[in-house]
Amino acid sequence: MATTSIPRAAVARRSRNRQLNRIMLAYALVAPVVIWRVAIAVYPFLHTIVQSFTNESPMTFGPIKWVGLRNYGNMFQDPTVTESLAFTVIFTVASTILQIIYALGIASLLNSSFKARSIVRAVNLLPWAMPTIVVATAGQWLFNQQFGMFDDVWSRVFAGARPIWLANNDLARLAVILLDVWKNAPWAAIILLAGLQNIPSELYEAARVDGASAWRTFRSVILPLLMPTLLTLVIFVATYRILSFDIVYGLTQGGPGSSTSLLSYQVYKVAFSGLYYGYAAAIACFAFLIVLVISLVGYAFLRRSQNAF
Question: Helices 79-111 and 277-308: crossing angle, nearest 10°?
């Protein structure tokens, strides 16, 4: 008995050693990626949070001071920041709703059978594939009062004075929203198209046999099955809208005044034009809290929809 137990113990020990070596090798292979991710993501994030409680600025002489919540208090008393926050809410809600509706129409069209459907699906992605700064710069020409396409069509149809799109607060906001919807809705349409293609064709045939109209089929068959995809898409689209920067930077530079300035663009102005790093970090942290709330609320609705359907 003793002679047979020793080899068994040695074999078990060697097996544990091999398993431990494999685990250590796996950690060693993954470690560079984890370290790099911590260096470029986790550390800057934590540093920004700490920075938001200080008066850090290259224009401030002397050591960096801890100011507590003063930056956050000043943020809500700053009319430029509050106006940026107001437009961020308007931009996020309006652009998200319009993108979902527009993308759902495109996805329904691309899901139908017609000639050259593959080519149309590829062409649909062209606006999304273009760099946003290029689209925004082209938008300056489209909305130009003298030779812009929109103003030219307006003058031909209504035979009146051409509106000054980018010099009027409301029209400039509308221009930013419309351009953002045109740019990003094709990506949302492809996501919804994938969801539509996962719906069995038998359900459409059953609804047709029961005499359901197109609207009733959409409301009772398509929408419930597409709801998890829709909610997931709403979360992504809404968070991206809050963090949008380049479309405002390229189209209006936040003007006229601060009417089209988003929180992300305000962070850029405060940090790199005003050189108030601590104050800009506080605005960035506040934008992160908004994104976190939207993600948590959206995730709760997503879980509820999955349980319901």
Answer: 40
The 10s digit of each residue's pLDDT in 156-196 is 887 767 788 888 899 999 999 999 999 999 999 999 998 88
**pTM for the structure as a whole:** 0.84
**295/309: higher pLDDT:** 295
Omega before 256 cis (within 30°)?
yes
Ramachandran angles phi, psi of 150, nearest 5°: -65, -40
Q: Is the dihedral of CA 277, 283, 287, 293 positive or negative?
A: positive
CA distance 296 to 303: 11
Q: At what angle do helices 223-242 and 169-197 cross, to 10 degrees?
A: 140
Domains, the chain, in order of start with CATH, read 80-308 (1.10.3720.10)
86 contacts 263 by C-beta, under 8 angstroms: no
Six-digit token pair at 21? 């070596």
Helix (H) or strand (E) holding 187: helix 169-197
Q: DSSP of 8-76, one letter per residue?
A: HHHHHHHHHHHHHHHHHHHHHHHHHHHHHHIIIIIHHHHHHHHHTTB---TTS-SS--B-TTHHHHHHH
Q: What is the number of H-type helices and E-type strands within the chain?
A: 15, 0
Mean pLDDT computed over 275-304: 90
pLDDT digits (tens, 9 = 90+) for 15-46: 888 888 888 988 899 999 888 888 888 888 89
Q: Supply 238's token pair.
A: 């809404």
